[in-house]
Design a protein that fits this description.
By secondary structure, the chain is α/β, with parallel strands linked by helices. Helix content is 45%, strand content 17%. It contains twelve helices and eleven strands. It binds nicotinamide-adenine-dinucleotide. The site of nicotinamide-adenine-dinucleotide (NAD) has 28 residues, from helix 2, helix 3 and helix 4.
Length: 288
């Protein structure tokens, strides 16, 4: 919608107060527009709120991506080598849930910090090329394209299962998979079998689109309520403030308020800082 406003329907832009962006990929595109000087409306990056990406991306994608894989295939997860490509907010959640199911988790990431964190979180870390030969199930959650491609498909075991929970249908290079396959058939709803020239079979779930949406129900509403509350409060914030045409972080008090409301709804009470503690944390005269 924002792209359309900036390309095909520019006459509508002056009447737009602003926008709020839900996804990691969307925020990346908006930052690119801002950098290029082409963003003409203020946007609040709802995705970057802690009450969003630490919950929706982590727990929501973690749980629903595994639901998608299970519903599509009915595989037994315990004991499987489960490869997660992309160890960001979503990938960390997926890895935690896969481990909870008894999988041997393998993580691939191009960011050294993310890869090191995966190592210390107890996952095996390797290149996607190495993982290709070891994995039983592969899940991409990077926001990038061609993360799994012909070079990987050629090394995969017979029966490897491929799914994406990241971005559109571009993380797994499907044209390259089609190019290697001599036969293709649908073996179950949302499961395409690609038979390669040497007889190995690779299974692609949900046409490489977001597996949690294609083959399951997406995130539970119990976690989306956080994101949608942030969306609503971010829209209110835009309506009440005159913001510059750029990508804005969601104000911390709005972010924290949503977490506070959720705790209240769950009946969970937490402590508050005393005045003396607040002063101690804010000052530099004590504790140095
Ligand atoms: N399925 C869903 O319902 C759902 C929900 C939320 C987000 N998403 C999408 O999931 C994707 C990831 O979101 P996130 O919040 O985890 O992002 P993030 O930025 O926190 O993490 C992405 C990770 O992928 C890594 N990466 C990027 N390119 C890579 C490559 N070529 N190979 C290996 N690693 C690579 C990055 O280094 C980073 O660690 C985005 O496209 C986002 O829009 C999907």
């Amino acid at each position: 919608l924002i792209t359309t406003l900036h390309t095909k329907r520019t006459e509508l832009l002056p009447a737009v107060l602003g926008s709020t962006e839900e996804t990691t990929t969307g925020v990346i595109r908006l930052r690119a527009m801002e950098k290029e000087g082409s963003l003409r409306i203020p946007v609040i990056a709802v995705n970057d709120a802690k009450s969003k990406n630490m919950f929706d991306n982590y727990y929501g994608t973690g749980e629903s991506a595994l639901h998608g894989i299970l519903r599509a295939t009915n595989v037994l997860l315990p004991g499987k080598n489960f490869v997660i490509i992309g160890y960001g907010h979503c990938g960390r959640g997926v890895a935690a849930f896969a481990r909870g199911f008894g999988c041997h988790t393998i993580v691939c990431d191009v960011d050294p910090v993310a890869a090191l964190q995966a190592h210390y979180d107890g996952h095996r870390v390797m290149t996607a090329g190495e993982a290709a030969a070891t994995g039983d199930i592969f899940l991409t959650v990077t926001g990038c394209k061609d993360v799994l491609n012909a070079g990987h498909f050629k090394r995969m075991k017979d029966g490897a299962v491929l799914a994406n929970a990241g971005h559109f249908n571009v993380e797994i290079n499907i044209p390259e998979l089609e190019g290697l396959a001599k036969r293709k058939r649908t073996v179950r709803p949302n499961v395409q079998e690609y038979e390669l020239a040497d007889g190995r079979r690779i299974y692609l779930l949900g046409e490489g689109r977001l597996v949690n949406l294609a083959a399951a129900e997406g995130h539970p509403s119990e976690v989306m309520d956080l994101s949608f509350s942030l969306q609503a409060l971010a829209a209110e914030y835009i309506a009440k403030h005159k913001l510059e045409a750029r990508v804005h972080r969601i104000p911390t008090d709005v972010d924290e308020n949503v977490a506070r409301l959720k705790l209240q709804a769950l009946g969970i009470k937490i402590d508050a800082l005393t005045d003396a503690q607040e002063k101690y944390l804010a000052g530099w005269s004590e504790g140095t």
